[in-house]
Design a protein that fits this description.
The complex is a heterodimer. By secondary structure, chain A is mainly α. Chain A has a domain of 220 residues. In chain A, 65% of the residues lie in helices and 2% in strands. Chain A has 18 helices and four strands. In chain A, strand 1 and strand 2 form a beta hairpin. The longest helix of chain A is centred in the last third of the chain and has 36 residues. Chain A is globular, with a radius of gyration of 23 Å. Chain A starts with a helix and ends with a helix. Chain B has a three-stranded antiparallel beta sheet with strand order 3-5-4. In chain B, helix 5 packs across helix 6 and helix 6 packs antiparallel against helix 7. Classes of the chains: A mainly alpha, B mainly alpha. At the A-B interface, helix 1, helix 2, helix 3, helix 5 and helix 6 of A face helix 1, strand 2, helix 3, strand 3 and helix 7 of B. Chain A: Belongs to the KdpA family. Chain A: One of its GO terms (cellular component) is plasma membrane. Chain A: Keywords: Cell membrane, Ion transport, Membrane, Potassium, Potassium transport, Transmembrane, Transmembrane helix, Transport. Chain A: It is found in: Cell membrane. Chain A: The system is composed of three essential subunits: KdpA, KdpB and KdpC.
């Protein structure tokens, strides 16, 4: 570990904390439907969208209606992507002449991008035409992120409103978030990326006669426009197979820092927005404190392990940290930090290959996802996931000290607790169940590249990433097969929408409740005690559920690694 | 419920079309226009041309395997530095395949400077398989070999490497590194000067 490495982590954290309030206030304006300076320019566009599609943005939707409209819209978007990918060969902007994407891969990819997962069973540069990248994939990067933020708004309204029947308007939320937040920020970021060396062209490739006289063909395309929203929307689906490790996606240490900040920016802003929505910003800061504690703990372990390096390679006379699967311009510190950020959020972009991390260094990304990606988390998904844990935490606190379970002015009763547990239970059921199936049937066992416990880790990582809607991989797994494309597609779908529906039901139920003023009997949900309790609940629920599977994978791998046993 | 579904159909379809046009076509095409107008070099891949031929990109690595050049890291992209197949090796920490590969690479690289330990980045694959850089240690490690093969004074080659080291941005961002393509072009330039 180096001083510069720790300085990077400190500077990253400092800039991030400085972003919390400005982004939070901007989000709060959109949450309330207030005018922003951008309305002068984009207001007519917004109104035009509503008029053409027959939407009344002021209609207050019940949670059921909100859920149905969200689902149908997402289904329509996925169908569009499926159609574009299948018809790719017939459509324009296909300079390298790629054929149609196979049925199972198109199925997997459409769900993957619709569910904000961006799991890549394909290698972008050898599968997707420029039009597919733009029209099939980039559009989801915006709208799955906007959907996530809209859903978080809906849950915020559940806590904030009193005796209300509705939780807002889905179309208004999605349109405003897209037009006034995601699009303008993406434009600024895309220009920055282009200036830094990220290509933005409609050409497909360029031929190079190298200095040694060989021929090298470099894939090109509209990379920067996709890169910008890929990070900001915590999507993570790279233009190229190597994702943000590819020099064309992430050419410098500065673009790397900007990418890491973009992953977390909206997520941290939403904690502040939540505080504003419920009328006490300390509620938001308490949540952020719990998240940042878990994040920094994970970062410390991952950085320590990667810097300590691989004893097997030390034995061959290679000193120092683990450079297998890492880029020289990022080195150990920026690669470890990126891996923790991308899995704490539901981004899944990578600037180093997690599969080649040391056993425990690679366990941190895996464990981050198993916690449900609530450490900052995906845009929207992180905070609504975390609030479900908060409901569980006040319930547990109520049991322990005999207080009435209430949170930010709402009584938490059995309906909320049951629905929260239902949503939280989706993760272990699907991850462990599906990993178990894949670990015993031949089609599943054909996947892993590595042998021994690391092979199991590859399978476990894949299903964890899919259900948690992350999209990063232990990429040695050969996942572009009918079995994995199908199973992982289903896993991503369940992991996204089987959490959203109970969450919206909680939102609807809470909105209908009266306000319960804080009393001497209320458990205080700001301050250190509460933050500690939140961390405890997240770790106990996540940790205890997954520890046995981690023992079979990364921990066994670690023991083999330090003993020098090879597979 | 049925009413909810029916009422969603028109907005779902129309909004999908509208957003597809704005986000899927207008946004990337506008960015392409802006990029091509303001930063044409970067937008087209930061290509470097010599005598009218494209010889490389200053951003992306290319393979250097001969002893006349500073060599790049091993690559898992296709058969090595394949610009259409970026990839890491994805081998785990206790992989027999990894150990065998590293052993073979150490044996091959060690001839550059017998007796000195091989810098780790020179025998490990990068994440993309297209890493343009090596560490300064890995560059200095190869100085004697390059100087010997090219019949140059090692001190000149060493100074060339020293001048080619990119330091951390603002003193903490990234790692010190040497862009192998840029270094080797400077190396060729020295050779050309001496030939004159």
């Amino acid at each position: 570990m180096t001083f510069q490495g720790w300085l990077l982590i400190a500077v990253f954290t400092g800039i991030l904390l400085a972003l919390v309030k400005p982004i939070g206030l901007w989000l709060f304006a959109l949450y309330e439907g207030r005018r922003t300076p951008l309305h002068v320019l984009l207001g007519p566009v917004e109104r035009g969208f509503y008029r053409l599609s027959g939407i009344d943005p002021d209609e207050d939707q019940s949670w059921r209606r909100y859920a149905v409209h969200m689902l149908i819209f997402n289904a329509a978007l996925m169908l569009l992507t499926y159609a574009v990918l299948r018809a790719q060969a017939l459509l324009p902007l296909n300079p390298l002449g790629f054929g149609a994407v196979s049925e199972h891969l198109a199925f997997n990819t459409a769900i993957s991008f619709g569910a904000n997962t961006n799991w890549q069973s394909y290698a972008g540069e050898s599968t997707m035409s420029n039009l597919s990248q733009m029209l099939g994939l980039t559009i989801h990067n915006f709208l799955s992120a906007a959907t996530g933020i809209a859903l978080a708004f809906a849950l915020f309204r559940g806590f904030a409103r009193r005796s209300a029947t509705g939780i807002g308007n889905f179309w208004a939320d999605v349109t405003r978030v897209t037009l006034y937040l995601l699009l303008p920020l993406s434009i600024v970021l895309a220009v920055f990326y282009i200036a830094s060396g990220v290509p933005q062209t409609l050409a497909g490739s360029v031929d190079i006669a190298t200095l040694e006289g060989a021929k090298q063909t470099l894939a090109l395309g509209p990379v920067a426009s996709q890169e910008a929203i890929k990070m900001l929307g915590t999507n993570g689906g790279g233009f190229f197979n190597a994702n943000s490790a590819h020099p064309f996606e992430n050419p410098t240490a500065l673009t790397d820092l900007v990418q890491m900040l973009s992953i977390f920016a909206i997520g941290v802003g939403l904690t502040y927005c939540f505080g504003k929505a419920v009328g006490n910003t300390r509620q938001g800061w308490a949540i952020l404190a719990a998240m940042m504690t878990l994040f920094l703990a994970g970062t410390t372990i991952a950085y320590w392990q990667e810097a300590a390096g691989n004893p097997v390679l030390h034995g061959l006379g290679l000193p120092g940290g683990n450079m297998e699967g890492k880029e020289v311009r990022f080195g150990i510190a920026a690669s470890s930090l990126f891996s923790v950020i991308t899995t704490a959020a539901s981004c899944g972009a990578v600037n180093a290959m997690h599969d080649s991390f040391t056993a425990l260094g690679g366990m941190i990304p895996l464990f981050n996802m198993q916690l449900g990606e609530v450490v900052i988390g995906g845009v929207g998904a992180g905070i609504y996931g975390f609030l479900l844990f908060a409901i569980l935490a006040v319930f547990v606190a109520g049991l322990m000290v005999g207080r009435t379970p209430e949170y930010v002015g709402k009584k938490i009763e059995s309906r909320e607790v049951k629905l929260s547990v239902l949503a939280i239970a989706v993760l272990p059921l699907c991850i462990l169940g599906m990993s178990a199936v894949a670990s015993i049937i031949p089609a599943g066992l054909a996947g892993p590249l590595n042998k021994g416990p690391h092979g199991f880790s590859e399978i476990l990582y894949a299903f964890t990433s899919a259900v948690a809607n992350n999209g990063s991989a232990f990429a040695g797994l050969t996942a572009n097969t009918p079995f994995y494309n199908g199973m992982l597609g289903v896993a991503m779908w369940i992991g996204r929408f089987f959490i959203i529906i109970p969450m919206l039901a909680v939102a609807g139920g809470l909105a209908a409740k009266k306000h319960t003023p804080e009393s001497a009997g209320s458990f205080p949900t700001t301050g250190l005690l509460w933050t500690g309790l939140l961390i405890g609940i997240v770790l106990i629920v996540g940790g205890l559920t997954f520890l046995p599977s981690l023992a079979l994978g990364p921990i066994a791998d670690h023991l083999a690694m330090i003993r020098g046993q090879l597979f | 419920m049925n009413n909810d579904i029916l009422s969603s159909l028109r907005p779902a379809i129309v909004m999908t079309v509208l957003f597809a046009v704005v986000l899927g076509l207008l946004y990337p095409l506008a960015m392409t226009g802006i990029g091509q107008a303001l930063f044409p070099a970067q937008a087209n891949g930061s290509l470097v041309t010599e005598n009218g031929k494209v010889v490389g990109s200053s951003v992306v690595g290319q393979a250097f395997t001969s002893n006349r050049y500073f060599q790049t890291r091993p690559s898992a992209a296709g058969k090595g530095y394949d610009g259409l197949a970026s990839s890491g090796s994805n081998l785990g920490p206790a992989s027999q395949v990894l150990v065998d590969r590293v052993k073979a690479d150490i044996a091959a690289k060690q001839t550059a400077a017998p007796g000195r330990p091989v810098p780790p980045d020179l025998v490990t694959t990068s994440a993309s398989g297209l890493d343009p850089d090596i560490t300064p240690e890995a560059a200095f490690y190869q100085v004697d070999r390059v100087a010997r093969v090219r019949n140059l004074d090692p001190a000149i080659v060493r100074r060339l490497v020293s001048n080619s080291v990119d330091q951390r941005l603002f003193g903490f961002l990234g790692e010190p590194r040497v862009n192998v393509f840029a270094l080797n072009r400077r190396l060729d330039a020295i050779g050309a000067r001496q030939a004159q």
